[in-house]
């Protein structure tokens, strides 16, 4: 058998010659290539050997060039190809692609299913909604091939019970309805394609208007009248006031299966849990970027307050892009993975206060406060994309429902999440020659 | 990497606890090898000849699952790949996604230079640093090798940024390579028709090369295997980025499959992945919609495993979110969330300088700090211990209260009455509701600052020093 000579052996030899110190060195003697073994070489081997030898001569020629000898001319004239540098190329060493099949397995430890939770109740179930929304049911991370995602993502749009400060780009869409929560709710469903409506009873805050719970509950009734989609009812965030406000709201919304936002560890969550159980609603379990706190609150809601598993949704807190989204993203991703792998205290659908994105200065400021920054461009375009990217990131971490504000953000977020979910049909696009595309 | 406990790495170390690596013990160093916060070469003894075998073995065990590929030269190299995990909380992601913005060879020279400079100079200040973009991708739209070479030369002349040469015609790529070979550009791309010629170029010029197999992972893997066999592992995989509909869903899953296979140990496909959100421009005519959709697609593949991408829109409303989502995903989750609570001096404050309250959430603190210092305002900045939660959330969640503020002041040893002439605290606008309580608790005057620290300079002009009552 012929002896196989490896290029690496030759390069090793060459490496030992410190090329930089070659000056004044003479290369003496012959280079011997001893090809032993009887009979002819097989063609493949001859080809390989020829290739190796050519490579060696190239290395040698390179040393020649370093020493100042115009080796390339020698090559050119020797092969008579001074005119066509193309032919200098060594032919490809492999003529056919090596056949290979791509294989990857599904994740085997996603054994637990996320709880399904339905919001809204139709007349058949004692409510007056025309449609309901079901969240959860996943057996894999969102949009993954490992398991079909049973429900798409949903968007609930924020409505407030009084005019509030908003970024200019957001406000422009609501000026005509800002004093009328019912009209506001109608508008987001009719014009902005909201799947649901969130009515925030912020005027109940003792530091704002201190609207009594009873009065606030009227607004809830108005909104339930105005729209026939499922609704979310939010308090003002005041831990003393919220339980009473949400109790009253739960009462007037009896049977509608609303989402009460929210129960948290820093208020009397038992009252909110009880209001939900008594009137057939769902509880939003809100914690602040802390997986263990989320477990604790969920456990308390289930064990201590007896909230059924199908009546809990989690809000592990949304921080805006650039303002802690990394924590929010990873917190949600960890929660979802833990749920899928069997942690029963975390197998609930998740909701995100995506509107928080508008707190980022990049979303609303006219221009950068820092002189060194490149131009930030028009803020009308910056704001919505900030809300979209914030929501999109969390959708990939497993978030199911989004509380949002800007109509463009709602539209684009729905478009991308439903595309990944697989329900958007478009014309196929041929990208084979994308490089040449005229744009 | 193939090992996951310090003990497994320790076995290969010299076990002398000599301290050369900056660690007290070999075991401590081994722990840093496992979390990839130190490099094996920092243990100088193991580089000695007598440990050669152990060094080589350990080096192989520590190599990241996804190969690292280097584009460019010198100070401007772009490293891509090198990941070991599928989820950032399991360790961290390495080598953030590189953003290449395109130019094309039918641009006129003035526009070309302007665009390249804009790409090179774009920056956004963020938590003590500037976020910037990385590369220029030159597309051959003319199909003419000479034109391509001329534009590539211009780009090389204009910027130090690493470049990507884009054409499916080997002649065109070769012409581009001739004028940029010293810059170690990335070739884009070999496909099922041209792979032999493109492989020759990659080998001849010794540059990294992208393999393009739209929605065909078998072909992609075959090409990767073939190229490796031919002698190059400087490969980048492009499974095709389809911009819309079910095709995009498929693209998403292709990225997940390729990365999962690589992390799980299939060496033949364990290379960096390229996304081309540029294709959004093939689906949208209106530039704002195209720009938006491109940013959306770029965000998806920054989060899910794109290591490098080619983009078109250079609108700030595309680039800013792209830079921030990348920072979001690649920030090391092991880095501390909080600064030490306490009183910080910004600039050279005196007894007349304002006293501002903020939280000890690192992000909030550094944002406020940079807004103040870059506007040359001297002040005292108080980082209250909110357990690393930002102002708005801390007010809502009860981590920022009047009592906490009082405690923070007391513990810092600073006395508002004697150390200032004004006995005044400025609360963040988002903590306005605490005003009354803080006045009661501390006995100081309380002013409400702006909701965003970017507005502190304007606020100061109007409100500081406070009117004497
Ligand atoms: S330098 Fe190497 S041998 Fe010395 S302590 Fe560090 S790991 Fe151990």
TrEMBL record, chain A:
* InterPro entries, per the entry: Ac-CoA_synth_d_su_TIM-brl, ACDS_complex_subunit, CO_DH/Ac-CoA_synth_dsu, Dihydropteroate_synth-like_sf
Asked if the Swiss-Prot or TrEMBL record annotates the protein with the keyword Membrane, the reply is no
Biological process (GO), any one: methanogenesis, from acetate
Pfam families documented for this protein: CdhD
Q: In which pathway does it act?
A: One-carbon metabolism; methanogenesis from acetate
Question: Which UniProt keywords are present, listed alphabetically?
Answer: Methanogenesis
Give the highest taxon in the source lineage.
Archaea
- Looking at the record, the residues that make up the CO dehydrogenase/acetyl-CoA synthase delta subunit TIM barrel domain are 116-367
Q: Tell me the SUPFAM superfamilies matching this sequence.
A: Dihydropteroate synthetase-like (SSF51717)
- Which family does the record assign? Belongs to the CdhD family.
The record ties this protein, via HAMAP family, to: CdhD
State whether it acts alone or in a complex, and with which partners, per the record: Heterodimer of delta and gamma chains. The ACDS complex is made up of alpha, epsilon, beta, gamma and delta chains with a probable stoichiometry of (alpha(2)epsilon(2))(4)-beta(8)-(gamma(1)delta(1))(8).
Main role?
Answer: Part of a complex that catalyzes the reversible cleavage of acetyl-CoA, allowing growth on acetate as sole source of carbon and energy. Probably maintains the overall quaternary structure of the ACDS complex.
Entry protein name? Acetyl-CoA decarbonylase/synthase complex subunit delta
- Report the source organism: Methanolobus halotolerans
Automatic annotation (TrEMBL), chain B:
Q: Which InterPro entries match?
A: 4Fe-4S_dom, Ac-CoA_synth_d_su_TIM-brl, ACDS_complex_subunit, AcylCoA_decarb/synth_gsu, AcylCoA_decarb/synth_gsu_arc, Dihydropteroate_synth-like_sf
What protein name is recorded for this chain? Acetyl-CoA decarbonylase/synthase complex subunit gamma
UniProt GO molecular function: 4 iron, 4 sulfur cluster binding; iron ion binding; methyltransferase activity
Question: By its UniProt entry, which HAMAP family does this protein fall under?
Answer: CdhE (MF_01136)
Which organism is this protein's natural source?
Methanolobus halotolerans
Identify the keywords attached in UniProt to this record, alphabetized: 4Fe-4S, Cobalt, Iron, Iron-sulfur, Metal-binding, Methanogenesis, Methyltransferase, Transferase
Q: Does the keyword Endoplasmic reticulum apply?
A: no
* Reported function: Part of a complex that catalyzes the reversible cleavage of acetyl-CoA, allowing growth on acetate as sole source of carbon and energy.
* Cofactor, how bound (note): Binds 1 [4Fe-4S] cluster.
EC number(s) recorded for this UniProt protein: 2.1.1.245
Q: Which cofactor does it need?
A: [4Fe-4S] cluster; corrinoid
Q: Where is this region: Disordered?
A: 450-469
